[in-house]
Amino acid sequence: MGLMQISQLFSGLIAAVFYVASYLSFVQLLKYLCNWLPPNLLAWAFTSILMAFLITHLSLSTEGFDGTSLIISVVLASILYFVVANIREISVVSLPPA
């Protein structure tokens, strides 16, 4: 195994860890909304930071900057946050009867 292969393997492992952490944090945000509670600012910020690290890591590679990967990642993350923001607005407006 050459140095380049080890570097790619390590980079893939880092990306996988960021992806799993971002996914679990995002699911945690959805649990707040399923219980009709707004997510707290710390959970929202933590998820945003994890997603930013993931997007940054995916757009930077051993071969340099990949603009296409950056654009696709930002669009997908924005769609996810847009969905959560709309669900959050719905949950705040239409609380179930007590």
Jot down its keywords.
single chain; 98 residues; mainly alpha; two-stranded antiparallel ribbon; 3 helices; 80% helix
**Poorly predicted ranges:** none
Query: Sheet bearing the most strands, described?
Result: 2 strands, antiparallel
Helix content: over 70%
Structural class of the helix and strand makeup? Answer: mainly alpha
H and E string = HHEEH
Portion of residues in beta strands equals under 5%
What is the residue-mean pLDDT, rounded to a whole number? 78
Distance between the termini: 62 Å
Based on DSSP secondary structure assignment, what is the total number of beta strands? 2
Rg computed from alpha carbons, rounded to a whole number of angstroms: 17 Å
From the spread of the alpha carbons, the general shape counts as elongated
- Order of strands across the main sheet: 1-2
Describe the secondary structure blueprint for this structure.
Blueprint: H1 3-34, H2 41-59, E1 60-61, E2 64-65, H3 67-93
Antiparallel strand pairs: 1-2
Helix pairs in contact: 1-2, 1-3, 2-3
